[in-house]
Write a structure and sequence with these properties.
heterodimer; A: 5-stranded parallel β-sheet; 5 strands; 43% helix; 15% strand; B: 5-stranded antiparallel β-sheet; 5-stranded mixed β-sheet; 12 strands
Chain lengths: 141, 588
């Protein structure tokens, strides 16, 4: 990550998936703190809480209880939303292969759409790519 | 055809009747003419007979008058009294007149008429002899008269005249006889002919009567039959006149509408319609009669009618127009659509249910697949972490177990992907485009990257078809990858070809692999059916099911030509015309 000081916001309801992400980032020696919330609503609450630190990247699951990823994106990317939240890059991490999910996600300005591999090693490789990209890419302060 | 036959027959009957009447009239005319002629003949014959009688009397008269003249003269000869000569002169004058009369009476008997001059001559001769005697008596006195009388051949002449008159009388009689006989014969002939003609006329009229009677009978029967048809028809049959008034209303119509025929007779047919047709119908009819366009007349329509109790009645209505002389009538045949409407509603409901069930099933496959994947991934990851984090605590068997666990998790993931893929066909719609199969197959083969020992050959040129690119690619991808995966020889050979099959293109993917026993040909197209254990060859059993589903979605057909050990050829057909994707599946 370009800025190791900022946290990565992981929006994920599945505990093992959360562990997988954490473990993979750990294996990749990514030092950024992982802020974990379990659904879109919690994510919005986190982002809108002045006490919490603004993340440099949001890893977003789509199928979640209470508020799913697409719904979260609709709120977070709304024209009236806080521009500081709007510009945080979002990478979708999902099992959904649905064309409609992909279309909607990109319509809502996601930076990437990645299917979670079943095999952990392949998952690590995926996370390595994401990390590499966001190390190369500039990010707004 | 039956109608024109009837028409034909009626025409013939009319002609027959007409011909019969004409014959009867001609016969009557002939009979009349015959009678007229016979009467004229009779009159002329009786006139001729009458004349003959008169001629006979005249002849007789001439002789007796001459005798009388002679007798009177003789009296004068004896007495010398001049007054005795008055009757003598009268008789002579009468005799002359009779001779002149005879000329007229014998006008139609030229043979006798020719003898008149002779008669006249003899009469003159006789009279001149009498005159000579009379002259002698006047001038010479009694003696001279006597002498003259004795010298004159008066007696002889008288006898000759008598003979002539008798001859002539005989001739007149025989002429009269002949004339009467001819007249009688003529009358008999006329009577015979008239009798014959009369019989003919009677015969013709009898035949005519029989024909008309039979015709009337047939018409009555045909009418009765028609009535019976209308009465017993299961369809309502209503006729109206050009003002829309109901003229007939059959029992089926009574049942349909709930009115009796007597109740509706003469009333406006619009009473059987709901608004707004009820108030518009007169206008429709008038417009049509004014030469406007027909909306219902001549063809059938499905419309709403109204029963007596006001309830709506869906009907199929066919109206036809007929002309009875100057009158225009309209016949409406009413078919009750209530049952059909009900059945249609029921069917629509069933289809809705079916679509909902189908939809639910598809969503189920999709949702379940998603929800199954998360724990599966967890199992895979945990197995991985166990193997790496506790490597020093595991023996070889433990590591193998964990490897198997990871492998099974991956297999299940592939299976779920297969289900997702399968459920997506027909559910997710892509735009139909013209796809050049040559380019598509080339891309697909390149993507599959077959090992160098496998050659994939496209025979000839493949067609361009209309369809969804992804689906068409899946067809070749699955068939070719199956052929690559299942090859059992060092050199794999896969041939892709196409053939024209009428409305369809027939495509084939042939391999030189192990072949498939015909008893498995059905099975391989079923979901999750595999012929080799999955531990030997990783296979989900979704590929061919997917192929079948895609091909059938496009209205094509898929089949195998293969024997064990002889390689396999997979055939499938795709329509040449734009494939009509089945409504239910495409819409979902």
């Amino acid at each position: 990550m370009k800025n190791p000081a900022k946290p990565i916001l992981l929006v994920e309801d599945d505990q093992i998936d959360m562990m997988t992400v954490k473990r993979a980032l750990n294996d990749l020696h990514v030092t950024n703190r992982i802020a974990h919330v379990e659904n879109g609503e919690d994510a919005l609450a986190y982002l809108n809480d002045p006490a919490s630190e603004r993340p440099c990247l949001i890893l977003l699951d789509l199928n979640m209880p209470v508020m799913g990823g697409i719904e979260f994106l609709r709120v977070a990317r709304d024209v009236d939303a806080d521009p500081r939240i709007k510009r945080i890059p979002v990478v979708v991490l999902t099992t959904s292969e649905e064309q409609q999910d992909k279309v909607e996600s990109f319509n809502l300005g996601v930076a990437g759409y990645i299917r979670k591999p079943v095999d952990y090693q392949r998952f690590v490789e995926t996370m390595r790519t994401i990390n590499a990209y966001w190390t190369v890419s500039e990010m707004p302060e | 055809m039956a109608e024109s036959g009837l028409e034909n027959k009626r025409w013939t009957v009319e002609r027959q009747v007409l011909a019969g009447f004409a014959l009867a009239i001609v016969v009557l005319a002939i009979v009349g003419a015959g009678l007229y002629r016979a009467t004229l003949g009779f009159i002329s014959t009786s006139a001729a007979v009458n004349r003959s009688e008169q001629a006979l009397t005249a002849l007789e008269g001439i002789y007796s008058l001459l005798n009388e003249a002679e007798s009177r003269q003789r009296v004068y000869l004896l007495l010398g009294d001049e007054t005795e000569l008055v009757p003598r002169h009268a008789a002579v004058a009468r005799a002359h007149a009779l001779v002149t009369e005879l000329d007229a009476l014998l006008v139609d008997v030229p043979a006798l008429r020719a003898r008149l001059p002779e008669l006249q001559r003899r009469v003159e001769l006789r009279l001149s002899l009498l005159d000579a005697v009379l002259e002698a008596r006047r001038s010479g006195g009694f003696e001279a008269g006597q002498r003259q009388l004795a010298a004159s051949p008066g007696r002889l002449e008288m006898d000759a005249l008598h003979t002539l008159i008798v001859q002539m009388q005989d001739e007149v009689r025989s002429h009269r006889g002949a004339r009467q006989q001819t007249a009688q014969q003529g009358a008999r002939r006329t009577l015979a002919m008239l009798g014959l003609l009369f019989l003919l006329a009677v015969g013709a009229l009898t035949a005519l009567y029989a024909r008309i009677r039979r015709e009337a009978q047939e018409r009555r029967e045909s009418e009765e039959r028609l009535d019976a048809v209308v009465e017993t028809a299961s369809e309502g049959i209503i006729t109206i006149d050009d003002a829309g008034r109901i003229e007939s209303f059959n029992p089926a119509a009574e049942r349909l509408f709930g009115y009796t025929a007597a109740e509706v007779a003469g009333r406006n047919v619009s009473m059987l319609m709901p608004e707004p047709d009820r108030s518009r119908h007169d206008g429709y009819l008038r417009r049509y009669l004014d030469g406007g366009e027909a909306h219902i007349i001549g063809f059938g329509r499905e419309v709403m009618a109204q029963r007596r109790d006001g309830s709506p009645l869906p009907i199929g209505l066919a109206v036809s127009e007929m002309r009875l002389g100057p009158r225009r009538l309209f016949t409406g045949i009413v078919h009750d659509l209530t049952e059909r409407r009900r059945a249609e509603a029921r069917q629509a409901e069933l289809i809705d249910d079916l679509q909902a069930a189908n939809e639910e099933l598809r969503n189920f496959a999709y949702v379940v697949s998603h929800d199954l994947k998360a724990p599966l991934r967890g199992i895979g990851s945990l197995a991985d972490w166990l193997a790496s984090d506790y490597a020093d605590k595991l023996d070889a068997q433990g590591r193998e177990y964990l490897a198997l666990m990871k492998n099974r998790a991956s297999r299940m993931d592939a299976l779920i992907d297969g289900i997702l893929e399968y459920s997506r066909v027909g559910r997710v719609k892509e735009t139909q485009v013209a796809v050049d199969l040559n380019a598509l197959v080339a891309d697909t083969v390149q993507m599959l990257a077959p090992p160098p020992e496998v050659s994939v050959i496209v025979e000839g040129t493949l067609p361009t078809v209309l369809g969804e690119r992804t689906r068409l690619q899946q067809l070749f991808q699955n068939l070719v990858s199956n052929a690559i995966k299942h090859r059992d020889k060092p050199e794999g050979r896969i041939v892709i070809a196409s053939a024209d099959a009428g409305d369809f293109w027939q495509l084939s993917v042939a391999d030189n692999g192990p072949g498939i026993d015909p008893r498995h040909h059905e099975r391989v197209f079923q979901l999750f059916q595999v012929l080799t254990p999955r531990d030997q060859k990783e296979s989900t059993g979704v590929g061919l099911a997917l192929v079948k589903k895609i091909v059938e979605l496009y209205g094509g057909r898929v089949w195998i030509d293969s024997r064990s050990g002889e390689g396999s050829t997979f055939f499938f057909t795709l329509p040449k015309a734009a494939p009509a994707t089945r409504e239910g599946e495409a819409a979902a």
